[in-house]
Specification:
This protein is of the alpha+beta class and 175 residues long. The protein has helices at residues 2-31, 88-97, 125-161; strands at residues 37-51, 56-68, 71-75, 103-108, 116-117. Helix 1 packs antiparallel against helix 3 (125-161). The longest helix is centred in the last third of the chain and has 37 residues, at 125-161.
Length: 175
């Protein structure tokens, strides 16, 4: 029973982390549309090639700087949605749109100005999928933990109601 309890708790925590991470990205994507706007400058722009055993994908990498108040910041977030693609032309399109040295208009979080984005309001399917997977994991973990807890309580009740000789004590009947 302890193994099941620990597994359920681990799944609950993992699901919570997924739901929180995906939900935070969805929230930031939507909220960023209404963040304050400031002008900045692109510091560098390139395409990164990501290789795995089964595929190759391309990630546009845009680094930019901006000033809020007296503080100077640099950031690399294009959008809160994933911008990785299997098409090098799509990744290169970002590089062409945001060349090094070009001015850029960006949105920054009023509560945490170090968080910024160039293309705000975009949320990807991956963010929705991660959030949904986290919620589903939490639901299964919570229902499993509830089931383990109930069966443990039933087992303890049975142990308490059994007499030392192995038989249940007689029940009182009211007539």
């Amino acid at each position: 029973m302890m193994k099941r309890l620990l597994l359920g708790l681990a799944l609950l925590v993992a699901g919570g982390a997924l739901a929180f991470g995906g939900g935070r990205m969805l929230y930031r994507a939507k909220a960023s549309e209404h963040w304050p706007v400031v002008k900045g400058a692109v510091l560098s722009s390139s395409v990164e090639t990501l290789r795995s055993r089964r595929s190759v994908s391309f990630r546009p990498h845009v680094r930019y700087s901006y000033t809020v108040g007296a503080e100077h910041y640099t950031a690399e977030t294009i959008a809160f949605a994933a911008v990785d693609t299997g098409n090098p032309q799509e990744a290169n399109e970002y590089v062409r749109r945001f060349p090094a040295g070009a001015p850029v208009e960006l949105h920054y979080s009023p509560g945490e100005p170090s968080i910024a984005c160039i293309e705000c309001g975009l949320a990807g399917m991956a963010d929705y999928a991660v959030t949904a997977a986290g919620v589903v994991m939490m639901w299964f973990a919570a229902s499993g933990l509830l089931s383990v807890s109930r069966s443990g309580l039933r087992a303890r009740r049975r142990q308490r109601t059994q007499a030392p000789g192995g038989t249940a004590p007689p029940r009182e009947t009211h007539g």
